[in-house]
């Protein structure tokens, strides 16, 4: 639907044009049809008018705005220029009058019999900054709008920004300001700034047009000439598609949560294909569920055994005496449809399809058949082709991998089994507190937006980290993410960023390759924190829940090593933060604690040989002064302040501050011999995100927290 | 000195202009003076000539090339335009003739008494692509040249490239091709390509001019109009500086190596301030040297003890019976000058100045005094304000930190003590084989170019990794690096990337140069691999010596996890490599080993459930096919192929290939549970650079190896 501030669009006019094109089997519009659309939605195009005599020409030209172009209008003259019937660059009423007379005289001389309707005057544009405004239909996100500078250079540098349509005025302004060369819009070398509001208005109107009429597949306003008080499209192009791709089935929030709550907090689980034979997936799954500590009912389903792993087994899920919330499938692909039919009749909420051998090996039809069974019985499918899922609050390890029991606030999902295994190993190695690890595999049904909806309202989860290669429905994902982001960070590793990566994604899961910039801009628009690589996904997932949210942009570095201070400063800028310019009174206060040759300012360089008390006093000051919003600590291993002494004192000072109601993000970089590893771990356990041997990582994590806090509207 | 292909520069003409400016106390040149310099060095400027009558005007205009601009030349007419004395855009002989006559007539009408010398005709430029060519004097590197596209947009995007002057034609061509928007130079939207050779020629000539005449501090040719067959500077600007900064003292290669060999392989070491008191630096130093296993003579110097740490102590270094190569100073700053005087008389080659309290605390004079003592006695100083240095081939740990004894090929240096400690801890934690760790601290004397010269020829060192915050003499560093890079990688972490201070600059070029981009471009020109952060410095330093050099650009990914394949592909592009397009016969050969639903192509996706033999066969094929130059492996933890099984088989296959003379770089990303950590370590020990839980790091290391191999001329 169009914006609430709908400025009186003429939908009927657009409807008429599109219906005619549809009737005539056309997928493009003529220039007059394009102009009709532009007029209907107020997209500014050069003004034009027909003058029937020289005086009228002058009046109209003044009304349109000089300079103007004048062209003969005659049904009998096809080649206007040849007939001397075109004049450009008419800048004064005198010139317009003279041009009118010349053009008519030329036309009469060219063809004395020609019928002459008059002279068309058109606003002459070409001054101002050339920009590009467009809309297209993205296979993942649907209607999106694009903005960029025009011209040759920008074409090479591809400096454009995308937004999901419909855009609000605020979206459009952020989009316009989001191009790299945005400074050009403010005027350079003394030139006037363009009117960003006019451009934003144009983007909003175009976005409304393509939203109201989905059959407009593409729209190009290129170039648009932007000046200090106007933005006029010199050329329009529309491409139509009367049979657009359908979005996947939508579930409403209650439907999603109803199913997800039963899947993540099931009272009972059936394992289809549970087995006593070690090495079989059906054996690993029941073993992990039982050994992992799951407290609900566990029903092995196996037609050939009476008991599996100490539990009574049933020939069919239909034989199970009580209700079953979740059925985990550990049978070959070819048996899934039939057993799912039985599970559906039993009323399970979720089918966890571990087996491979579906779309990923070309068996799309088999997968479609299974989905159809599930839809018939209102069963939601996770998978197929997955390792399963973990949910630590229920001590649930429904997977053929190993159990995981370090409960905490991070929910992680992965589209790929390999990445899932990396999540598991890394989490175990770093003792990351996890609420859930979920494989989504082929995403025949449940996908990231369902999981976002669940984790977004799950009190056991306070950050969500997702690996994905594609989105089945980008629009649904954005809607889910927008709803969640104000409460908790959503971190996304989108694989296939580069065209080579996108090609590999294509061969892996049949994912559609698109321009990564579209993903980048639209995920950002949705408030998602994008992880550049796997390590960052894992690290952000681990660290973001540990840090409190900053309440302002004033970042201060306190360091015992000047060398670390320089690198930490680099990292602050690299990660989109800025160093607080410490005011004189605060500078004075820091100086009171540090040697005379130490450097106050920011970084606060306490110098290398200082005792614990210097770290303690300066860090306490940094925490207590309300003008500072986040601290980055640089530690240098010395005999005077050994690593664990530093770690304990920082943990204490931070704990004291938190007890006093001061909860600022604190991160630390530890330089030293191997003892700094244990010191970093101690700090991490006490709410200070700390790493040894790197100045980049702690600042990168803080930067990610800031990106989220800004998107969540906390700053 | 100018290029060997010196194209007959008129140095006398330049000398005369500069001498006049010097005499007149000017630091800038007039337009005619600037043109004189341009003419002397063949910098193309618009042609001009004086016509004394209309026919001569026509002849000259044709000779200069139309279009031309015509201007009255009269000592009595100051305001030429007001006098009707200027006409532009004269495109035909007829127009030139008419213009001549009009201009002279206008001038006579304007001032009947004016003396009229004739009409100046000047080639009118403005067509073509606007580019910027300049030169400036960088405080670190001295004369540098700059190239960039001109115009408003590029000014905003700062798309420029720098090179150290003098540039060769090849340097200049790489510089021109090195801007981001280089594609524009090749013509866009059907436009003609500019003549890169002409632009390169211009850069070479300008670079020769500023090299021959160091007092030309800055030169701006902006804009230069580049066309398909020409490049003409529309405007010239020169800034002079007759008192340029002096470069630090230069040592020749023999002098450097003479001293460095004695410092790194000393027969004897004296410790000034050696102490029996635990906790004192003079105690830690002697303890580390002795306990570290150093086999040479150790002489404690302590006026109050007869014996220190079991060795005979001497009151003064002068009392030591034998020769002393190195004196390590562990006394307060104020005692350094006097004790160094004695060490100098004793004939030491190197003074290792651990004490702080010199320039870093504002005591520049004290540091200068110490340097003067050293220079007088021909002693080289390391430091002051350092942790000391390690050289494992001599089991030498001349430091107050702890000994380090894992010998290997990497030499690491740091300007900061904190970073030095991170080097030590990280090396120990990862068992990195190290030849040396050296603190350079305040760099009163020995700096990175001295160390490069030594490590470059040191058979115990096969990669050099340096942390630096500045270079005392960037030009000497570049010269040293250029000499070393063909044999071994030089990796640099340049701290302070983003905190480039505002620089007083009199020109556009000067302003552009106040930027980290200068370091970036010139280090790259020198063949240095730049590490973006501390972690990469450590990781490249550790891993590059482990990998053999690639002999070609064809990179292939073999992966058991499709999801890793996508991320590895992204990383390949991010790190400046490209995926080999596998030809049909090789594709067929890979397909023979993998399941039908696996994906050949590149990545080769062997799929997740495969046994060790599938990894083995595909990796062996990748190693043995000569068209493939580097392998990236993606491992997915399964029961069928557990982590250590994978690690051992890869190590075996690689070892067999190496035994057969096939030595290709192989890196691996391991996804799985914590067992992948031990598996990665095993691979690393066997020459395969492997990491758990990251797809980025192994590819980043391979990319660094490729950057070096390209710089070394191996590809």
UniProtKB/TrEMBL annotation, chains A, B:
The keyword Transferase does not apply. Residues 35-71 form the ATP-grasp domain. The keyword Transmembrane does not apply. PROSITE patterns: ATP_GRASP. Keywords: ATP-binding, Ligase, Nucleotide-binding. GO terms for molecular function: ligase activity. This is Acetate--CoA ligase family protein. It comes from Nocardiopsis sediminis. The lineage of its organism: Bacteria, Bacillati, Actinomycetota, Actinomycetes, Streptosporangiales.
